Amino acid sequence: MGNKYLFEVGGANKTFEQIKDVPDSFLAIDNTETGYKNRIPLWLFGFLYYPPYFGRHVCGDRFLFLFDFF
Q: Which of 2, 35, 37, 66 would give a disulfide with 55, using CB separation of 3.0 to 4.6 Å?
């Protein structure tokens, strides 16, 4: 993430103790359904995965998403 954000991964009881003084820091929490403030459920990161077989092509500094289904 460009060294801007810090994500600490942990279980449902993970606290901000280790990263409390770090700006732009978040907890990626396992075994939880919903997030609150800087606590993000770990399962939400699965939606960021984009399979390579969907036809993603790079053009300069932008991504062109070509959905070619055969």
A: 66
